[in-house]
Amino acid sequence: MELTLAIAIGVLTGSGVWLVFRPRTYQLVIGLSLLSYAVNLFIFSMGRLRMGAAPVLGADGVANPADYADPVPQALVLTAIVIGFATTALLLVVLLVSRGLTGSDHVDGRESR
Amino acid sequence: MEHHPLLFIVALPFLAGLAAVLLPTDSRTPVTWLAGLTMLACVALTFSLYPAVSTGEPVRYTVEWMPSLGLDFVLRMDGFAWIFAFLVSVIGFLVVIYTRYYISPDDPVRRFYLFFLAFTGSMLGVVLSGSLIVLVVFWELTSISSFLLIGYWHHNQAARDGARMAFTVTAIGGLALLAGVLLIGHIVGSYDLDVVLASGDLIRSHDYYVPALLLVLLGALTKSAQFPFHFWLPNAMAAPTPVSAFLHSATMVKAGVFLMARLWPVLSGTPEWFVILGLAGMASLVLGAYLAMFQHDLKGLLAYSTISHLGLITMLLSLGSPLGAVAAIFHMLNHATFKASLFMAAGIIDHETGTRDLRRLSGLFRFMPITGTLAMVASAAMAGVPLLNGFLSKEMFFAEAVETHADSWVDRIAPYAAVLGSALAVTYSIRLIHSIFLGAPPESFPRQPHEPPFWMRFPVMLLVAACLVVGIIPGLTVGPFLHVAVASVLGDATPQYSLAVWHGVNLPLAMSVAALVAGAVLYLLIGDYLERAESAPLLGRLNGQRIFEQAMVAVSWRWARIVEDLFGTRRLQPQMRLLVAAAVAAGAVPLLLSGIAFGPFGTPDLAFAGLWCVGMGCALFAAYQAKFHRLAALAMLGATGLVTCTTFFWLSAPDLAATQLVVEIVTTVLILLGLRWLPKRSESLLERGGLWDRVRRARDLAIAVLAGIGMTLISYAVMTRAPGETIAGFFLDKAYSEGGGRNVVNVILVDFRGFDTMGEITVLGIVALTVFALLRRFRPAPDTIQRPEQQLIQRSYDEAEPDRRADATASDYLYVPSIIMQWMFPVVIVLAAYLFLRGHDAPGGGFAAGVAMAAGFILQYMAAGTVWVEDRLRILPVVWIGGGLLIAALTGAVPILLGDAFLTSYFQYVDLPLLGKVPLASAALFDLGVFSLVVGATVLMLIAIAHQSIRRLRAARQEEERQLEERQAWS
Question: Which residues in chain A touch residue B753, judged by CB atoms under 8 angstroms apart?
């Protein structure tokens, strides 16, 4: 399971990095989205993988910490997901406006060469 | 906090400066009164502290700042600080009076007084600091405010250059001083001046003594414009003359020698101190006086003379003998009085005749006899003529120069340098008087000269009177104050000294007479030559200013260009490559150096592996096809997102899963909305590039693969190892007992780390508003203005069929789904409410609920079209955003009223009808703010993009109608 997730993080990172290097704005948007999945999973995995141990306490609210997954990376990732959506929107709009101004969807605003 | 006169002395000028800005623009007289009264108040406050200071115990005022680091805001006044504070505030007061008449009504007077008062406050801060760190802070403040003062006439190139040079030199010195002070603090273990002053032996015997000394002296010598850093001072002459009078007499350049005298008990007495300061002082003394002779600008002459006199003070301090320190302190006072009066006189001459050029001025005495007399007395004091204050300290200087302190060649040439410097001082003083006031008046002045108004002359009169009184009866006037000052610096080492005018015929007197005679003879011999000389001979290329300018060009232009050529690019791709490659390298180096260790292999899970086979396949496909198959790539991206979401669910993170799911929906909608504005597939991009292109792609692929492998290794290594001590236990333990919630993730977000969340939602709101603002003026590319091709095809079909409405196909093709989506609207709202309400105890919460709510809104847009929704539903996203922020902030602020910290939460269980027992924590109210903001931000961004298509449609329709009208008009 750990190995699967580690490889998945690697593949997502690699795909994202590859796309971030590409010249089309749309590739950049997709690439950054893939990278943010990878980063979110990476941060999440820092709390180690647990099954059936959601950090939601029982009715009495008393907890043995060993019985629950680490809530801290989860809290970090939760806001990261929402902020990630916002920055994706911002990037998309910046790229659209840039395309409107320059007439090109190259990341530099004009074709290389 | 106890209010203390010391605090007022330092704070009043700053407060008055702020008040000056608030006065009306044309309030010349009120602002002068304000500044003048402030300075008078400082004088009075300083005076009120004299009885306390004269007992020998320093007056202290401490505000704890960071006690854990030993950093406090300490003000401290002993005799030496007292006499400086007195000098600064008195001369500051006189400068205010003088400025009233000097500065033209066209100049922005408020700004002048703002800078002036800030500078005065900083200078008072320097002299009254009781902690070395506080001293450095005020020291840098004097650099900044003097920069503003020198550059006051900023439309003038010389003023800008002079200000910049002064700032660069003194601020670099200030940084060195900071480093030196940190070293001293490290040696002593405290920055408190009293502690530092008591640790002289410890500092001098420490290994770091020499570096600390060099750094501190670098700060002091740059500030006091000592050789080889003297070149900034003449350039600072571009300042208004009142500023020069202030900067050159009691402040700015005096800060350097003040610091050297302040730290004299702990740093002096070593060979290093003696050689560095002895050489710098001697060189400044002789070189300054030599260059002063050749100046044609009156202020330039006085500036070089300042360098020379400060060289004299530095030399006295270098000797390390108590009598030298006495003479140095005494000369600081004397120099301040005669130099301030001379600068003010120079300003009067400039003001009344329109020129400061010694070659054009002549015979002024008959036009302004009073000013002339005053200037002559002050010049005589500068030259060291008996019965004036300059004579007394110069006598002490000669006496000390003759003494042997540390036998070396520096020591042996000291008396000759002293006499030479003094003789040159006599020469330039005579030149000043002779060429300005004596001789025949020229045929015309730029302005017809006459005496200035009385009050403009008044400060000069007062200062010259001080020169005379101190020079004739020193023991009765300055004596006691000087003694308190000297005793506070030297302590038990205070020597016996005599301020008498007449000590009998002795060697110092002979040296004085020799200097006076030699200077006069020299002027007789070369006076005419000085008038004609273009520049000072014999110095050749030894020009500090040129070296400085070349260094500035190298640093700020040539080197910057080299770095820019190496690393700068306007293209994004090379930057991204550099960034990622650097990140990969930064991760790889420690891995390669120390190796990587994995824990035991975890539990294999086939289903999970299968899930991720799909996820990875989708990611790779998206990466491969994002260039041409945008929609497919988006679908694949969404699939990867769903796999991620499932993973969160699988691995005990239901909150993340819920949030990821709804965010996935809105992200997909968002990108779909954006797709419409992207260009059509261009066949030219299909062409395979050349060899270079393939190499580039291979390199990118290599970096991407390396980055992926690196991430895999690191995350696998971490995941397989047992976690160490984490803070998870704390949160799990306290979530219910202190946060009143059982969903620990939510409690962390809205309670424990509420302040972070506050910041995050603020960012979210800002981003949404930015998106909105960017799209308000959105101009799409020309090829995307028309309706999309699909709509055109549908439309032409509708037009061809006589029984169909226009656009019927477009509006009806999703008829059934759109009806369902409309029905779903209340369901989604209930879902959002459900997610929100259970958030504190079960998976859910403001973030997930907010995005779900936003998804509900955007579904309506998709189902019925923008126009239909906007006709029926008024969503005010900006109100949601603002309301959310307000709720969150107010929830946070209420505890402050109750005496708790910001964002403290309270909770209680409440019975709600129908819903049963619901926990009601104030954190839930905060979560409501989060919810509202997330709804507003998400909806605002989505609607802003969605709205573009109807704006464009309207524009396109108007264009069509216009063309139709034109055609009809033609036919």
Answer: 75
Largest CA distance in chain B: 128
| pLDDT single digits (tens) B171-225 | 999 999 999 999 999 999 889 999 999 888 889 998 999 999 999 999 999 999 9
Could A74 and B768 be called an inter-chain contact, meaning their C-beta atoms sit closer than 8 Å? no
Q: Would you list the DSSP string of B813-867?
A: TTHHHHHHHHHHHHHHHHHHHHHHHHTTTSS--HHHHHHHHHHHHHHHHHHH-HH
Mutate to test the interface with B, among A18, A27, A62, A105 (most CBs of B within 10 A): A18
Q: Is B917 helix (H, G, I), strand (E, B) or coil?
A: strand
Give the number of beta-carbon pairs within 8 Å between A and B. Answer: 325
Domain ranges, ordered by start, for chain A: 2-49+69-102
DSSP track, B878-896: HHHHHHHHHHHHHHHHHHH
Query: E strand or H helix at B916, and its extent?
Result: strand B916-921
Name which of B616, B704, B728 is nearest A70 (Cβ-Cβ): B728
B580:A40 CB<8 A:
no
Facing A42 at nearest CB: one of B654, B700, B715: B715
Is the confidence at residue B601, as pLDDT, over 50?
yes
Q: Region B8-20: what's the mean pLDDT?
A: 91
At A77, is the secondary structure helix, strand, or coil? helix
How many residues are recorded in chain B? 971
Task: Tell me the shortest Cα–Cα distance from A11 to chain B, in angstroms.
Answer: 6
> Which residue(s) pair with B64 in the sheet?
B72
Task: Report the number of secondary-structure helices (H) and strands (E) in chain A.
Answer: 3, 0
Out of A26-40, B30-44, B306-320, B543-557, least confident range: B543-557
Report the CATH number of the A2-49+69-102 domain: 1.10.287
pLDDT for residue B1: 42
> Once rounded to an integer, what is the mean pLDDT over residues B903-920?
67
Contact indicator for A101, A93 with CB cutoff of 8 Å = no
Indicate if the pLDDT at residue B540 is higher than 60.
no
| Option in B602, B641, B729 nearest A37 (CB) | B641
Contact list, B745 vs chain A (CB under 8 Å): 55, 71, 74-75, 78
pLDDT of B39 > 90? The answer is: yes
- pLDDT tens digits for range B45-59: 999 989 888 888 888
Cβ B38 vs Cβ B9: under 8 Å: no
Cβ neighbors of B383 (< 8 A, separation 6 or more) are B390, B425, B426, B429, B430, B516, B519
Residues of B in contact with A11 (CB under 8 A): 616, 619-620, 708
- Is there a contact between B899 and B881 (Cβ–Cβ < 8 Å)? no
Predicted confidence at residue B685, as pLDDT, reads 63
Cβ pair B655:A78 closer than 8 A: yes
Cα separation of A93 and B194, whole Å? 61
Our measurement of the distance from residue B649's CA atom to the centroid of its chain's CA atoms, rounded to an integer in Å, reads 48
Q: Among the ranges A55-64, B529-538, B730-739, B847-856, which has the highest mean pLDDT value?
A: B847-856
Chain A residues in contact with B659 by the CB 8 A cut-off are 78, 81-82
Cα–Cα distance measured from residue B414 to residue B436, given in angstroms and rounded to the nearest whole number: 33
**ipTM of the shown complex:** 0.95
Among B711, B723, B775, the residue with its CB nearest the CB of A93 is B775
Number of H helices, E strands in chain B: 40, 4
- Choose the closest CB to B656 out of A1, A62, A78: A78
> Given this model, what pLDDT does residue B731 score?
86
**CA distances in angstroms from B392 to B331, B352, B374, B385, B511, listed in the order given:** 8, 33, 19, 9, 13
- How far apart are the CA of A18 and the nearest CA of chain B, in angstroms? 5
Q: How far apart are CA A19 and CA A31, in angstroms?
A: 5
Contact A65 B601 (CB under 8 A): no
Helix (H, G, I), strand (E, B) or coil at B912: strand
